[in-house]
Amino acid sequence: MNPIKKIYLFGLPSLILLFYTSVSAAQSGLQKLDDKIMIDLQQQRTPEQTGVFLFLSRTHLYGDIGIPAGLLAGGIISNNKEMRQNSLYVASSTALSFGLTFLIKHIVKRPRPFIQNINIVPVYRAGSTSFPSGHTSSSFATATALSRAYPKWYVIAPAYLWAGSVSYSRMYLGVHYPTDVAAGAIIGTGSTFILQSLKK
């Protein structure tokens, strides 16, 4: 394996765990900032915005599955090998980000914001653990892989607008801290660099 890929593959989880360690001190400034942002967000909620962000939060699966599936279908129909290869790249990047997120979640076991701080009221009570955000890691992996496969502004802008909206929705809904989302974005983006040899 290429040394750069080894650094990404083995260094990325370590970097994320180090990031969490700096956040997890009981009364750290970063934890206080996390709590403050979450409380400020919940105070700004409206029924209309909540409906929009619930919808955006649910789109991550459609993007994560639909984008590579669409590329594969397009590649088969048009007999375009490059498009089929890019489908594999996007799907593999998203799958790797999911695996890394799952692993780190089970090592860290950070409670959800509304469990850790009773002043944080979620729109709904998500299960599992909080760090890092799986919705964010998978949507950023999909957006980054797609943008690297097709580096055109009209691909990059909507891809990252979607990934950013999904990520913001997780904080707005009260189910992830900003640091959970930041770590998810790093994992998702990093996953695409590990698998860049799959890109055509």
Structure write-up:
By secondary structure, the chain is mostly helical. It has a single domain (about 5-20, about 35-200), classed as Vanadium-containing Chloroperoxidase, domain 2 (Orthogonal Bundle), CATH 1.10.606. About 75% of the residues lie in helices and about 0% in strands. The chain is built from eight helices and no strands. Helix 3 packs across helix 6, helix 3 (about 45-75) packs antiparallel against helix 7 and helix 6 runs parallel beside helix 8. The radius of gyration is 17 Å and the shape is globular. The protein starts with a helix and ends in a 6-residue tail after the last helix. The mean pLDDT is about 85.
